[in-house]
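Reposting from the mailing list since nobody answered there.

I have sequence plus structure tokens for a pair of proteins and want to know whether others read the tokens the same way I do. The first protein:
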Amino acid sequence: MRITDQAGDVSPDDLGVHPGRDWFTVLSGTVVLYLGERVIRVEAGQAASFSTMTPHALRSDRGPAEILIILNHNGKRSHLGT
């Protein structure tokens, strides 16, 4: 997945919540993970995993980022609309 939305001010409306878990690793660039009240920078070669019942959003930092994301069944339905 390619992320081009830039990090910055994120409103509560930007944060999603749904059943499941997400796991991703950053292939290139840097991703900013907004996870509840926390803001976490995840750089190329690093990974993150979290419960998607915590409000969350992903943004890129200073340019596009590419991630490999693994979703469980609930996450797949929420993200892909299947």
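The second protein, same order (residues first, tokens after):
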Amino acid sequence: MARPNGFAYEAHSDGTVHITHHGRRATVLRGDRAARFLTEVTTADPQLVMARWTGNYRRGNERTARAHPRNRG
């Protein structure tokens, strides 16, 4: 599995956190979720944390799952 990369975040003075992926906004966190994110991103691998919080966490099996007989229309 390839490690996630290209994520960045900006913490704003109003308490919001903007997470971007390759320069495009992926999500905005506010309130308690933003505070929990900021705590977690400083204690773990930031790229993995941001990938998980944005839902952009690939497992590497998407192509094989798409070709499986039960997933064909």
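Reply #1 (J.P.):
I read it the same way you do. Residues 9 and 19 are 4 Å apart (CA to CA).
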